[in-house]
Write a structure and sequence with these properties.
- With about 375 residues, the chain is of the alpha/beta class.
- Helices cover about 40% and strands about 20% of the residues.
- Helix 3 packs across helix 4 and helix 8 crosses helix 9.
- It is globular, with a radius of gyration of 24 Å.
Length: about 375
């Protein structure tokens, strides 16, 4: 693009745009790309420029419920290399810090980024996190982790870094992945909801910014109470949104139904205790009546949970991630019908609900996007 094209796109004056482009050229993030077409009156051909994403890289680490996904990414937040490392769920948080420190050291020495500047490290933590202090407040998945653990401080005690280290909840980074690379492109008011086998997390984006809340609780919709006398939750409560739609509850419901549904496809060739979530889904897709009954119950609770989300946040879009996406149109249609059945007529038309098109890499993509955002914001202001 030429400077004048960039100015028009960014709604800036040409002198201001020229100054910014010059800064990026000096930093190596923008490079000349030849000459454009001259104007109709035969004027001088404009100089063209293009973005150079390989001028810098970030490191992104996503700590999930049972593994760590780590990646390097260029300045456009496109992944260069990634890996997955299993985690000991009963291990202390200090072991996790050791693993992350080793990842950061290895990635800085990787030939993939040789000679390229590091601009930041993002670490997504499961559970509650304080991004300002770099603290892991609490994780329901790792019961041996210490509360209010200074993750960032302990990491920097092992690895010397001259770039920012960003700590936040994993779902907030996933929301940034949807904003930059996924279903929420061009939107600044949306919600992502990630249904994991052992949890239900969310992140709220309002006016383009991630919401944290006064105590970093924003997005913990999994622990909204839907049924006080309902299923027990890993948080210690009962009837939480997360508990009512969890894989654990689905499997418990399925196994309890064995005597009444012995002929179900779910139990063909396996005992009740051998049933897994994929067996329920496979039976549902095969048209099994008992499997459909189980899925319909999940849809009912999921829809009720989303009604609360909609009434509190009023998003333009809700993006569903995780285990139920493979149930396809039936699941989405059922949720929409549940919302219609329990909510005001005007509300039905104001929110779009769709599946994420991103895979398991969404966490590290979002962390990489955050690193890029913060770096370029700082560079422009300076």
């Amino acid at each position: 693009m030429s400077v004048s094209q960039i100015a028009e796109h960014a709604h800036l004056s040409i002198p201001t745009t020229h100054s910014i482009v010059k800064t990026f050229v000096e930093e190596g993030f923008v490079v000349p790309a030849g000459k454009g077409v001259s104007t109709e009156d035969g004027g001088k051909k404009p100089s063209l420029f293009e973005f150079n994403p390989r001028q810098a890289y970030g490191i992104s680490v996503y700590i999930g419920a049972d593994s760590i996904t780590a990646a390097t990414a260029d300045a456009r937040a496109d992944l260069l290399a990634s890996e997955e490392i299993p985690l000991n769920k009963s291990g202390p948080i200090e072991e996790v810090v050791d693993i992350v420190a080793d990842i950061v050291r290895r990635y800085q020495e990787s030939p993939v980024v040789s000679g390229v500047r590091l601009i930041g490290v993002a670490i997504g933590l499961p559970g509650l996190a304080d991004p300002e202090a770099g603290i892991s407040i609490y994780s329901p998945h790792y019961h041996e982790w210490k509360a209010d653990y200074p993750f960032k401080r302990e990491l920097l005690a092992q690895v010397h870094l001259e770039v920012p280290v960003y700590i936040d909840n994993v779902n907030r980074f996933q929301a940034l992945a949807e904003r930059d690379k996924g279903a929420a492109k061009g939107l600044d008011n949306f919600v992502i909801i990630d249904a994991l086998p052992e949890g239900l997390g969310a992140a709220f984006v309002f006016r383009g910014d991630i919401r944290h809340g006064s105590h970093n609780l924003s997005g913990e919709i999994g622990h909204m109470i839907l049924d006080r006398g309902g299923a027990p939750c890993i948080c210690g409560g009962t009837g939480c949104f997360e508990a009512m739609v969890s894989a654990r509850r689905v499997l418990e419901t399925t196994r309890r139904g064995f005597e009444a549904h012995r002929d179900s496809v779910i139990f063909q060739g396996r005992s009740p205790q051998a049933v897994r979530l994929e067996h329920v889904f496979d039976a549902f897709r095969a048209g099994d009546a008992f499997a459909k009954q189980i899925v319909d119950e999940v849809i009912e609770w999921f829809g009720q949970g989303l009604i609360n989300v909609i009434m509190v946040d009023d998003p333009v879009l809700i993006i569903l991630q995780g285990i139920y996406n493979e149930l396809g149109d039936y699941f989405l249609k059922g949720i929409r019908e549940t919302i219609q059945a329990y909510s005001w007529a005007w509300m039905r038309k104001g929110v779009d609900i769709r599946y994420s098109q991103l895979g398991p890499e969404r966490g590290v993509l979002g962390g990489a996007a955050y690193v890029c955002d913060r770096y370029f914001e700082t560079l422009i202001w300076e």
